[in-house]
Amino acid sequence: MKYIFGPVFSRRLGFSLGVDLVPHKVCSMDCLYCEVGPTTEKTAERAEYVPLDGVKRELSLFLSSSPEVDYITFSGYGEPTLFSRLGELVSWLKENYPNYRLALLTNASLLNRDDVINDVKGIDAVLPSLDAASQEVFEKVNRPVQGLTVDTVIEGIERLLKETGCRVWVETLFVKGINDSPQEIDRIGEVIHRLSPHKWQINTVARPPAYGVEGLSYEDLRQIAERVGYPATEIVARSKARKRKFPFSQLKEEVYRIVVRRPCPVEEIADALGVLTEEVEEAVESLKREGKVKEVIYGGEPYVKGLSG
Length: 309
Ligand code: SF4
Known about the structure:
CATH topology of the largest domain: TIM Barrel
CATH architecture of the largest domain: Alpha-Beta Barrel
CATH class of the largest domain: Alpha Beta
Number of strands: 12
Structural class: alpha/beta
Helix content: 25-40%
Bound molecules: iron/sulfur cluster
Low-confidence stretches: none
CATH superfamily of the largest domain: Aldolase class I
Strand order of the largest sheet: 1-2-5-6-7-8-9-10
Strand content: 15-25%
Number of domains: 2
Number of helices: 10
């Protein structure tokens, strides 16, 4: 498959089937913390960067077996709203696969455009980023394409909330020494209170970033949440990030020992073992390949179930 990947487990969306609508790495920003790597084509031009027909073909093939996933998510290698046929793809999915929920991860840079707002109207959950509220910090952390302002981003999120029925979960990713000053936190907080999104998710650098920056501790994020005091705040970063205490083979055994007794969500397993969620995901992937566990959905939540025998 060229344009779809996963399903992968994400803390924000559960099991999500990713759809890449731009090639590596086309984006209107070049964020310091980007997990995908440095932007090679920085642009705000919408275009059919990947063929719509090819994306549809892969989705039809994958969805033909009615797999259980929590979301089909437009994300991937860059900024998905740069894909000029996004609206057509959303309509096609809604018409042909109405049981699947759609999600969009976006840097919100194009959301103040009429065509983009119209394109995203059918999406169930939109997760826009807002990492700064002042132009100076915005330029430092997100390194936007020339001419793009933080006000455009904020206006875009505002339009999303006012003009669409999408659930809006704004994410702010804090980078040590860049957007975590008390002044910037207060400015971001003011914007969040004013916009009033369904959720404000705060996060920090957790995977290798494009440029050498560092994340905050869980405690720092907790203090930010307290300082801002927005009721629907969720700290996405893990709370029990510790180094693995045992080798991978033993970790797999421990994971298996837990889930063969009762199905468990990945996060619960990580908490029980005091290891990173990512490590459990890796162990689960390996156990899946060996046919020892499978994923099941219960009450809309993904669980890992051990297969005995
Ligand atoms: S907007 Fe997203 S894809 Fe683009 S550089 Fe920033 S983190 Fe990476």
